[in-house]
Each structure stands twice: as C-alpha cells, then as structure tokens.
Amino acid sequence: MKADEIRTVAVIGAGTMGAGIAGEFARAGYDVRLLDKNEELVQRGMAMLRMAQEALIAARRITRRNAASALKRVETFTALEEACSGVQLLVEAVPEDLSLKQATFAQCDNLCPRRAILATNTSGLSITKIASATKRPGRCVGVHFWNPPHVMPLVEVTKGEKTSTATAKTLMVVSRRLGKRPILVRRDVPGFVGNRLQFAVMREALHILSEDIASAEDIDTAMRAGPGLRWGVIGPLRTADLGGLDIFHAISEYLFPELNSDSKPSPLLSRLVREGRLGAKSGMGFYQYRAKHFDESIRHRDDVLLRLLKVLNERESRKGQGT
Ligand SMILES: NC(=O)c1ccc[n+]([C@@H]2O[C@H](COP(=O)([O-])OP(=O)(O)OC[C@H]3O[C@@H](n4cnc5c(N)ncnc54)[C@H](O)[C@@H]3O)[C@@H](O)[C@H]2O)c1
Prior knowledge:
single chain; 323 residues; Rossmann fold; 2 domains; eight-stranded mixed sheet; globular; binds nicotinamide-adenine-dinucleotide
C-alpha cells in the first residue's frame, strides 16, 4: 500500500492517544473512523479530540475553520466490523497489554481489506509478537506517536521482523504528511529509540537524587538549562561532533564507570510508588501538587512546547530554504 492510496484511517481505542492520533489524521485531510467499546467512551474521546484542537487554536497553530473541517472528517464507531470496512490504514491504540493487542490485531486482520496496513501505537511491546496474530505480518508496523499527539512531533516507525520495507516507508511518508518528524527504527527493540534515551537519563537522574548529589529542582534545572536545551536543537550526537569526539571520548573513559547501570527500577522510585506517591495525579511525586495544578501543569507544558516548536519549525524551514 502506497501513501498516496491511503484515504481512510481507522483508529481503534479512543483514549488519550487514540483521540489525539485521530485528530492528527483528520487535520491532515484523511477520513477518520474512531472506535471504542461503547458510545460513552467514543464521546469522551471526541471531547479530548476537540480539546486538542482548541489548544492548537489558542496557540495560533490552526484556525477555527481548520479545526471545524477536521472534526467533520471524524466518524465514530462502536462496531469493529463497520470501522474496518474499506480502510487502507488502521492504527491500534488500545491499552498496553500484549494479549489484548494481539486479539485486536487478529480481529482487524479478518475485517480489514487484504492490502490494508495494520499499525500499532504500542509504547514498547514487540511489533513482531503483535503482528504474529495476523496473516499479514509484512503489512504490520509500529507507529509510536508521543504524548500529547497534537504537540509532539516525534513518531517512531518501527519494523517488526517481517515488516516489509514498503510498509515502513508508507508510514514514514504518511507521518510526514501529518506534519510529524518520523524516525525509522530498523529493529524491533524494547523502548524503540526515544524511550531508550529518555530512560537512560531517568536512571541517572534518580541515581543523582538517591545519592543526594543534588535536589530534584536542581537536577531538573541542570537538564532544562544544560543538555536538554541543546538536545532540543541539535541532539546528542551532533552535540558530540561540535564539542569534539576526542573530548567526549576522554570524558567517557573516566565517567562511564561512575554512571549508574542498575538493571532494576531505582529503589527510590519503587518506594515512592509503594507509598502511593505517583506524581501530579496523586498530588505528590518528587514535587507536591494541589488538585487543580495537574491540569494547569499540563496546559502550561503544552503551551510552552507549542511556542518553542513554532520557533524551532521556523528555523528548520529556513534551513530547508538554504538560509
Ligand atoms: N499515554 C501515553 O503517554 C502514551 C504515549 C505513547 C503511546 N502510548 C500507547 O498508546 C496505547 C494507548 O494508550 P492510552 O494512554 O491512549 O490508553 P487509554 O487507556 O487512555 O485508552 C485506551 C482506550 O482503548 C479502549 N479499548 C480497550 N479495549 C478496547 C477494544 N478491545 N477495542 C476498542 N477499544 C478498546 C479503552 O476503552 C480506552 O478508551 C498504549 O499502547 C500505550 O502504551 C501511550
């Protein structure tokens, strides 16, 4: 299936990710079928989808007219057979449970047209195992949107063992048409690329905190004012190139033996979870939150990210024009 042949996309699961992903496809002009287990869940998904468009309008990324025409392209479903009929692409966004994803893929395999591509938004389960529940593993692929989909540009297109190169290529092209910045993950490894990078940093941040080397606030500041800021512009490998690979090599020699290499979650993190300190949603994590602060913190994060992205995108497009 070529990218140009794709017109109708089914999104299975209208939760946080499914609703957001449906909005991204609809804004790019695709006809979208959003499905969940019952009408109430589908309507909750539509409310999330509308909220995402409102945030984009507020950030002047789209007009109210763009949002209205996108919403017109989204149809809601509760019967899988109807949602799958005649689609060219299906994106599964049901909860992160291998047997549920395999069962969903097996059903969709029976109901979707033979040539349709089945994509999974899994955060890290094996694409190969999910695809093994179907008779079309060559046309199954991972397509990992980052949360929130209306803000985050990264999409990880991951090949399972049997995913055809053509299928992966189609998803790369389609993701670009959504205005995303897709990367190709050539091998089906846990955590793909983004989460491997994120959790390597997380492990060290927790280690620094446990060893009382710095406070939570100062660790966050170090990242936001230091490497995090630079990585948002040029990434870690180009950072090393610009700094000099000999310097990075010399530092690696003495620093790598000092870094944390535990293969289990940090004892500090395990204790916080045991105590019910789950972060903003429970009012307490590394920081304290008041009930209304949860939504406020997320709105603030998304608002700043959208403004930052505007600047970064302008820079990218100037680079594209050779300036
Ligand atoms: N939340 C995140 O930050 C995030 C980020 C990237 C990827 N993901 C991945 O995206 C997927 C979905 O995560 P989420 O956060 O949107 O979960 P969620 O719980 O918000 O949404 C899942 C939705 O799927 C529906 N569902 C359950 N079984 C179903 C079925 N058999 N048929 C149709 N719908 C069904 C649920 O009713 C629910 O609305 C997971 O694989 C998750 O790992 C999540």
